[in-house]
Design brief:
Length: 959
C-alpha cells in the first residue's frame, strides 16, 4: 500500500514535469506549421492544379523547418527539473511544499521520507492536479501529423508539375495574345520645377490590348519611396486607348525646398496576374523655394574656380539624372538579366556611374580650391558615397536596389544648389563674356520672374503717392463746411487732425528713407527731398489743429511725389531706349553671323578659317550667334528687374516680354542644335529659319525703341538710317565707277584702295559693318569711309553729307582687311552686304508702321532688288550658285522706291496745337512728350477749382 502510494505521488510529479516541458514547444511548432499551410493555400488554393512553383515549395520548406527549429530551441531553453515542477504545483494546489519534499526524498527509505511521501499522496488523492495537459499534447501531435501529411501531398504535386510542364505544350495563339500596354506621359515635361504647395496636373496616354486593373502612382522623395496612390481613372474593358489625368498634390508629401520628387505609373492586366505590369517612364520634380533671394558677390576676371565648379555641378546633376533613367529602364525592361543585350547595357550603366564618381572627385577638389564651405564639400562627398553604393549594386545586378542611392546622390547635388547656385557672379572684366544658357535639366516653365514691384523703391514711391492722395482728400474733408442739421464737434475734428498728422509724419519718414537710400537717379532726388520737407510742414499744421493751413503743403507734397514719379518714369524710358538699341544691334549681328555661315567653309589658310582645335565656320557662327542672343536675353532680364524695382513699370513689362519671347521661340535651343555638317550643306533651311526668327525679333525690339520716342523722332530716326544707308551704297558705287574709269584690274585693286585711304580731307575712317544707330546719335550706322567717299564722288551736294547719327565704328565681318585685290574685294563685298542687311531691317520696321499702298509697293520692290540673283556656274555640273549683284546696278534699282519711302517718312509729323490739345478727353490721348506737362496743368486746375469752391461755401453761411 505504501509503495503504491509512493508510486502514485512520484508518478503524478513525473507526468506533470513532462507535460509542462513539452506543451510550449509543441504548441509553437504547430502554430508555425498552420500559418505555413494557410500561406500556401492562399497562394495556391487548388492543390491538384499542377502549377505549383519552386518559390511556393521553398515557402513550405522554410515554414516547416522554421517551426520545428523554433520548437526545439524553446524546448532546450525551458528544461525544468522535477523539484522546480513540484514547487509550481505546491504553489498552485497550496500543498505546503508536500510535493517538493517528496521529490527531495525520492529514493530515500527512511521513516521520515516515507511519512512525508505518504502525506503527499494522501493530499493529492483529495486534491489531484488537472489531467488536461495529456489531452492537449495528444491533440497537438495528431494535428502535426495531419499537417505533415498535407504538406507531403503538396511536395508530390510540385515534383509532378516541374517534371511535366513544357513551354512547347502552350498553344501558339495563347502566346500571341499575351497582354501588352504602353504608358506615355503627355504632361508635364520629364523634368520640371515647382513649389511645395503646388498641384501638378498629370496627363498620361495609355494604349493597351487587354483590360487593366486600377493604376498606381509610385512617388519617391530623394530616392526613397514615400507613397503609392491608387488612381480613380478609367480602366477600360479591353483593347483601346485611354487618357489618364490625375493630379499630384505636393503639399501632401511634406517636401521642402530643393527636394527631388520622382514618380511613375504602374498598372497590371485584369485576369493575368503572372504577367509583369506595364510601367511608365520616371518623371522628376525639383522643389523650388517659394521666394528666391539673390546674393551679389564680386569676383575678379571670369569668376575663378567657383564659377567652374558651379558649371561642373550642373553637369553632374544632368549626368546622374540620365543614369537614373537608364537604370530604371533596365529594371522595368521585362528582359532576363542573362540576356546579352541586358548584360551589355547594365555594364555600360555601371561604367558610366563609376566614371561619374571620378568626375565628382574633381569637383570636390575645385570646391576646396574655391574655398567653399565645409557643408558644401560634405554634401558632395555624401553624393559620391551614394554613387559608389549604386555602382556596386548595379555591378551585382541589384538594379532595383541601386535606384535609391542614385536618387540620394542626385538629391545631395540639388541640395548644394540651395547654398551656392543662387549666387550671381559679376565679372569685373572690361568685356564680360556672354552668359551661357543654363544646362540645368530641370527647365522651369516660369524660369524668369520679375521681383514684386511692391518690394522695390519704385513700388514704395507709388504707394506713398496713393497714401498722400488719400490723406489730402481727408484733409479737405475736415475743411468742408458742415450742413445746418449736423452739430459741430470740435473734439472729433481735433482727434481726426491728430490722426492725420501721424499719417503725414509716416509719409515724411518714408520719403526721407527713400531719399537716403540713393536708389533713384539725380533728377528724382530733388523732388523727393522737397516732398519730404512739405510733408513735414503739413504734419506741423495738422498737429496745431489748422487743417486749412495744412492743405497747401499736403497738396504740394502730392505734386512733388508725382514729379518724382514722372522723373523716375522718364529716366526709365531713356534707359530702356538705350537697352533696346543695344539689343537690336546685337540681334542684327547674330543674324549676320548666321547669314555668313550659309556659304562654304573657308580654306584652311584663308582669313577667318578655323585653326587646329577649333570648329568649322558654320559651327563657330552658330556659337557666336548663340552668345549674342544669350547676352541680349541676359541684359533684357537684368534691365527689366532694375526697371521693376527703381524705374518705369511699363518699361519693365516691355523688357520682360521681349526676354520671355526669346525663351518661348527657343532660339537658343535651335542654335545649339545646329550640326556642323548640316549647316551650309543639307540643312541650310533650318539655319535660314533661325536667322529669320532672330531678324524678326530684332525688328520687334527696334519698333519698341521707336515707340518710346514718340512724335517725329521715330520716323526721323528711320529716315536718317535709310538716308545713311543710301549714301553708303552710293559711295561704294562711286568707287566702283572710279575703278572702272581708271581701268583697274583685280590684281591692282589693293593699290587703288591704298590711294583712296591716303587722299587728303578724308577724315577718320570707321571700321566694321554698319549697324543700327544709337538713339543718341553716336551709334553705328553706315561707315564713315563709305559716306565720305560718297561725298567725294558726288561733290558738295546734300546727298553727299552724312546724316547725324549715321557715322561711327563697330566691329564685325566688314572690318576684315588684307592686301591686294582680294582684300579690297572682300572688304567691299562685306560693306555691301552689311548695308543691304541694314536696309532690309529698316524696311521691315517701315512695313509695320504703314498701311499706305504706295509705300508697301515700294518696299516690296526694294526687297526684290536686294535679293541675290541666280546664275549658272561656269562648271560643267550645271548647278546654281549665288553671287551678289554689281553695286552700281543695285544703287540704280533702289533709288526710286527708296525715295518713295523717304518722302513718306518725312511727311509723318504728328504735332498737336493748343486747340487740338484742348479737345483731348484724357491724358492718355496726349503724345508722350507732352503728357507730363498736360497732367500737371490739369492737376493745378483741379486744385484751384477746389479752392475756389471751398471759399464760396465758406462765404454762404456768413451771408
Amino acid at each position: 500500500m505504501n509503495s503504491r502510494t509512493h508510486a502514485d505521488a512520484l508518478h503524478i510529479l513525473r507526468q506533470q514535469t513532462r507535460s509542462r516541458l513539452l506543451r510550449g514547444p509543441l504548441a509553437l511548432a504547430l502554430i508555425g506549421c498552420l500559418l505555413t499551410f494557410a500561406a500556401v493555400y492562399a497562394l495556391h488554393p487548388e492543390p491538384l492544379s499542377g502549377e505549383i512553383s519552386f518559390a511556393l515549395f521553398l515557402l513550405w520548406l522554410c515554414g516547416i523547418g522554421g517551426s520545428l527549429l523554433a520548437g526545439i530551441v524553446l524546448y532546450w531553453r525551458r528544461r525544468l527539473s522535477s523539484t522546480q515542477v513540484a514547487q509550481v504545483i505546491d504553489s498552485e494546489l497550496h500543498t505546503k511544499n508536500r510535493l517538493e519534499a517528496a521529490s527531495q526524498f525520492a529514493g530515500v527509505d527512511s521513516p521520515v521520507a516515507t511519512a512525508q511521501r505518504t502525506d503527499a499522496s494522501d493530499y493529492l488523492a483529495q486534491h489531484a492536479p488537472s489531467r488536461w495537459p495529456i489531452l492537449t499534447l495528444l491533440s497537438l501531435a495528431l494535428g502535426l501529423l495531419f499537417f505533415a501529411y498535407s504538406m507531403l501531398t503538396m511536395v508530390w504535386i510540385w515534383n509532378a508539375a516541374v517534371s511535366g510542364f513544357s513551354v512547347d505544350d502552350v498553344p501558339l495563339e495563347v502566346l500571341e495574345e499575351a497582354p501588352m500596354a504602353e504608358i506615355i506621359w503627355l504632361e508635364p515635361k520629364s523634368e520640371i520645377k515647382a513649389t511645395q504647395i503646388e498641384a501638378i496636373p498629370l496627363t498620361a496616354a495609355v494604349t493597351t490590348t487587354h483590360a487593366l486593373t486600377r493604376p498606381e502612382l509610385y512617388i519617391q522623395v530623394n530616392g526613397s519611396q514615400v507613397s503609392v496612390l491608387a488612381l480613380e481613372v478609367e480602366q477600360g474593358e479591353g483593347s483601346g486607348e485611354l487618357l489618364w489625368e490625375p493630379d499630384l498634390y505636393l503639399d501632401m508629401l511634406a517636401v521642402e525646398a530643393f527636394d527631388l520628387v520622382s514618380y511613375y505609373l504602374q498598372v497590371s492586366f485584369a485576369g493575368f496576374p503572372s504577367v509583369d505590369p506595364a510601367t511608365s517612364a520616371m518623371q522628376f520634380i525639383q522643389i523650388k523655394p517659394l521666394r528666391e533671394d539673390v546674393q551679389l558677390i564680386h569676383l575678379q576676371g571670369e569668376g575663378g574656380p567657383l564659377k567652374e565648379a558651379l558649371q561642373l555641378l550642373a553637369k553632374l546633376k544632368s549626368a546622374q539624372l540620365v543614369l537614373i533613367k537608364q537604370n530604371f529602364l533596365l529594371v522595368h525592361a521585362g528582359l532576363d538579366t542573362s540576356e546579352e543585350i541586358w548584360v551589355a547595357e547594365n555594364l555600360r550603366v555601371q561604367e558610366d556611374q563609376s566614371l561619374l564618381i571620378e568626375k565628382t572627385e574633381q569637383v570636390v577638389e575645385l570646391l576646396i580650391a574655391a574655398a567653399a564651405s565645409t557643408e558644401i564639400v560634405d554634401l558632395l562627398m555624401q553624393a559620391k558615397q551614394a554613387m559608389e553604393l549604386a555602382a556596386a549594386k548595379i555591378e551585382s545586378l541589384e538594379n532595383q536596389a541601386a535606384l535609391e542611392p542614385q536618387g540620394k546622390a542626385l538629391s545631395h547635388i540639388i541640395e548644394i544648389e540651395k547654398l551656392i547656385q543662387k549666387v550671381i557672379i559679376i565679372a569685373d572684366s572690361s568685356q564680360p563674356a556672354a552668359p551661357k544658357e543654363d544646362i540645368d535639366p530641370f527647365k522651369d516653365d516660369q524660369k524668369y520672374e520679375m521681383p514684386p514691384r511692391t518690394g522695390g523703391a519704385a513700388g514704395q514711391l507709388e504707394k506713398l503717392e496713393k497714401e498722400q492722395a488719400e490723406l489730402l482728400a481727408a484733409i479737405e474733408g475736415l475743411n468742408r463746411p458742415q450742413t445746418s442739421h449736423e452739430p459741430e464737434s470740435p473734439v472729433t475734428a481735433d482727434s481726426d487732425a491728430a490722426e492725420l498728422a501721424k499719417q503725414q509724419h509716416t509719409i515724411e519718414d518714408a520719403l526721407a528713407q527713400l531719399l537716403e537710400s540713393g536708389e533713384f537717379a539725380g533728377p528724382v532726388q530733388d523732388p523727393l527731398g522737397r516732398a519730404s520737407q512739405a510733408a513735414g510742414d503739413s504734419a506741423l499744421q495738422l498737429e496745431a489743429g489748422d487743417s486749412v493751413a495744412a492743405r497747401q503743403p499736403a497738396a504740394k507734397t502730392l505734386m512733388l511725389i508725382r514729379d518724382a514719379l514722372g522723373e523716375m518714369n522718364q529716366a526709365g524710358e531713356k534707359k530702356t531706349e538705350q537697352t533696346l538699341s543695344e539689343a537690336a544691334q546685337k540681334l542684327d549681328a547674330a543674324a549676320a553671323d548666321l547669314s555668313g555661315s550659309a556659304g562654304e567653309t573657308p580654306a584652311p589658310n584663308a582669313p577667318g578659317a578655323p585653326q587646329s582645335g577649333e570648329g568649322t565656320g558654320p559651327s563657330r557662327a552658330a556659337e557666336a550667334a548663340a552668345e549674342k542672343v544669350a547676352e541680349v536675353k541676359h541684359h533684357l532680364q537684368t534691365d527689366a528687374a532694375r526697371q521693376q524695382m527703381t524705374g518705369a513699370k511699363a518699361m519693365a513689362e516691355t523688357l520682360a516680354a521681349l526676354a520671355k519671347s526669346i525663351e518661348e521661340e527657343q532660339i537658343l535651343q535651335d542654335l545649339e542644335a545646329i550640326d556642323t555638317a548640316a549647316v551650309g550643306t543639307g540643312d541650310a533651311s533650318k539655319t535660314a529659319a533661325i536667322q529669320a526668327a532672330i531678324e524678326e525679333l530684332a525688328t520687334r525690339v527696334a519698333l519698341e525703341e521707336l515707340g518710346l520716342r514718340g512724335g517725329n523722332q521715330a520716323f526721323d530716326k528711320i529716315a536718317a538710317e535709310l538716308t545713311s544707308i543710301q549714301q553708303g551704297l552710293k559711295g561704294l558705287a562711286q568707287r566702283e565707277r572710279r575703278k572702272a574709269a581708271a581701268g583697274e584690274s583685280s590684281d591692282s585693286g589693293g593699290g587703288s584702295e591704298e590711294t583712296l585711304m591716303t587722299e587728303p580731307n578724308k577724315g577718320q575712317r570707321g571700321q566694321g559693318e554698319p549697324t543700327l544707330a544709337n538713339s543718341n546719335g553716336s551709334g553705328s550706322g553706315a561707315t564713315s569711309e563709305s559716306v565720305e567717299e560718297a561725298a567725294q564722288g558726288n561733290g558738295s551736294g546734300s546727298e553727299g553729307e552724312p546724316s547725324e547719327g549715321a557715322t561711327g565704328s563697330s566691329s564685325g565681318r566688314g572690318a576684315e582687311s588684307g592686301s591686294g585685290s582680294g582684300a579690297s574685294s572682300t572688304k567691299s563685298d562685306g560693306q555691301q552686304d552689311a548695308l543691304l542687311t541694314e536696309l532690309t531691317r529698316n524696311l521691315r520696321m517701315v512695313e509695320q508702321l504703314t498701311s499706305d499702298a504706295a509705300v508697301l509697293a515700294a518696299i516690296a520692290e526694294l526687297e526684290q532688288s536686294i535679293k541675290f540673283k541666280e546664275s549658272t556656274t561656269d562648271g560643267g555640273g550645271g548647278g546654281l550658285a549665288q553671287e551678289p549683284r554689281n553695286v552700281v546696278e543695285i544703287v540704280s534699282s533702289l533709288e526710286q522706291p527708296l525715295n518713295t519711302v523717304l518722302v513718306w517718312l518725312r511727311a509723318q509729323s504728328p504735332s498737336l496745337n493748343r486747340g487740338e490739345l484742348l479737345q483731348l478727353r484724357t491724358v492718355d490721348e496726349v503724345p508722350r512728350e507732352y503728357r507730363d506737362a498736360v497732367q500737371l496743368y490739369f492737376e493745378q486746375l483741379s486744385l484751384d477749382y477746389q479752392s475756389k469752391q471751398q471759399r464760396q461755401q465758406k462765404e454762404i453761411p456768413s451771408k
